[in-house]
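Ticket #4471: structure output looks truncated?

Reporter: J.K.
Steps to reproduce: submitted the chain below (128 residues) through the standard prediction queue, then opened the result file.
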Amino acid sequence: MSGWVGRNFVYRVILGCLLAILGCFPAVAQADLIDEVRGELGRNAFTSAESDLARYKSQHGVTPEYLEALSWMARGEAASGQWDKAGAYASETRALCEQQLSKRKLDAETHLPTALGAAYEVLAQGMA
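Returned output as attached by the reporter:
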């Protein structure tokens, strides 16, 4: 019985160390930001999505992944009929995408063209 108790203690220590290491990583990693924002928008948790975007931007800056997630904010607001907010997110997305285009090609990866296309789409819907 004491062998099992000893192993149990060791397993708990290892698990604790792993959890501590994982806690050092940001809650919203690059690859997960878009999915996280989309999920929150699906639950109408717009404030949480905004917080995730702000946290990501403060840690990583404006990246193509950030821009695609921001474009989802525009889409989410449009779907909710909040056209002023949708237009603001879409305009911000478009402006930031255009800044990125001064440093890279549009089709260098998938996030930037998706973000820019979504920004134009939401802006066009808002005009219609």
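Triage note (M.O.): checked the attachment and the full token line is present. The CA atoms of residues 76 and 82 lie 9 Å apart.
Status: closed, working as intended.
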